[in-house]
Amino acid sequence: RKKVCYIIKASSRCRECVKLGQSYDGIKVVSQLKCLVAEERRLENELASSELALQEALAKVSRLYHQHQVAREKSQRLFYRG
User: Fold this and answer.
1) Is residue 2's pLDDT more than 70?
2) For residues 64 and 71, what is the distance between their CA atoms, to the nearest angstrom?
3) Residue 14: beta bridge partners?
4) Phi, psi at 7, each rounded to 5°
5) How far is residue 49 CA from its own chain's centroid?
6) What is the pTM of this model?
């Protein structure tokens, strides 16, 4: 079973190792820390990618809005000219 290691302040072992009477060498913590660091990096990369996609989408919306306004103004001028 996968258990998460939490170091007990009064001991050099994690809570699960103490409860199960197992020795503790810190490998679980190092392994979990590596996984957490990798997950954090993955999330940072995904966040940066999502932010970039959002900026690009907002730029497109702004550009389309401007083009729409210009087209509307042209059609109104043409209509009023007759």
Assistant:
1) no
2) 10
3) 7
4) -70, 135
5) 9
6) 0.56
